[in-house]
Amino acid sequence: MTVVMRLSCRTLIATLASTLALALTISRAPDAYATPDTFFTVPQEQIDHADPGDVLRTREIVYHLAGIPTPIRVSQLMYRSIDALGHPVANATSILHPLVQQAHPRAVAYNSIYDSLNPDDSPSRMIAGRISFSGALNAAEAGFLADLVGAGYTVIVSDIEGPHADFGAGPEYAAMTLDGIRAASRTTTTGITASTPVALMGYSGGSIATGWAASLAPTYAPDVNRRLVGATTGGVFVTPRRNLEYVDGSLGWVGVAMMAIKGLTRAYHVDPAEYLNARGRALMTSLSDDAIPDVIYRYPLLTWRDIARPEYASFDKASALVDITDRVDLARQPTPTIPLMVVEGSGGDLTGTNGHKPGIGAGDEVMVTGDVRSLVHRYCATDRQVEMIEIPWASHSVAMQLWAPMAVTWFTARFDGLPAPSTCATTSVGGSSVGS
């Protein structure tokens, strides 16, 4: 592949992404691509008779950005996986082909930041040509994806939240990610096979899929785990209850915490109404198909107490909610067996999230830095190769921009067989970020 080809594709994607971002700042347009896409509907009987990762249907399209086709070829697959409760479901994945076919393919499972409660905001729909305000985060990732296919990688982009957009449900994210890799390896259209090496990559919402997939792969998908060269992640969601406390009353991110409650109660079939006052019940109803662009800075200074019934003013009293948030606590899961790189900011104070709450401390405005550090320390205790890069002045979104190029450099070295770096000798438990 020539440098000109790489730059032209990258320039095209960057230009389209900038145009879309400008349009979204001017107005919120009605969603396009309103006609239902029957590709995503698979009979339940067909799903029930398939094994995890089996391909249920395929099609060949091109990558769309804001509804505009690009030169990137895409194989879209529907495949069998399981939801948070273990029920068989059909999910979608999109395999982006490198601009020039590689003699020895390398695959990257890129886990999107699309964070939404609406299945229509999923990467597969946006890649196929749908346009929506709520799906705008997909456009923000287009430059990353263009870089990867331009560098010769095959990129697997699965709908990590599953067919019902179960936002925050880590075990489901893991299954969708791992079965998406299986599916991509079980059809001749993708150019990869069951022996193709794979790296996991994801930030923020994508970190949920990346972290959980790395943790559960040895037991849920040992066939995939053997192929993983490593995982790189950032903006890591570790212990949900502590995240809820951290963003409680913040300027911008409390709406995302409410989205997580909505997503988790939907995934685990729990009705939160008994814990909520009238304002809280109305809020949960209004969030039904929202995404981060809909809620960011929409509920400034909102607290759990504002939406809870008096007897549940402490979240810890809401027993069913405590149960499901504990079920998706990454700190309670097995240690991955693969090398890891983790990037985390701790500059959340600069953007309106208090980093001085006792027992919580600093974060990146939505994730708790001390929790991430403690998770890394636990992994290090099992002699894993883990590199943690903390950026004290960076917010969540700023750290993402720094993480992306570091991530590509890191996993390229893993594909090349170089030893993984480690900061285990200098990573403390929680450290100064915990407490105040």
UniProtKB/TrEMBL annotation:
Cross-referenced Gene3D superfamilies: 1.10.260.130, alpha/beta hydrolase (3.40.50.1820)
Signal sequence residues: 1-34
Keyword Signal set for record: yes
Stretches of the chain forming a coiled coil according to its record: none
GO biological process: lipid catabolic process
Organism domain of life: Bacteria
InterPro entries membership: AB_hydrolase_fold, Lipase_secreted
Single annotated GO MF: triacylglycerol lipase activity
One Pfam family linked to the record: LIP
Alphabetical UniProt keywords: Signal
PANTHER family assigned: LIPASE 5, PTHR34853
Name of the protein: Lipase
Species name: Gordonia jinhuaensis
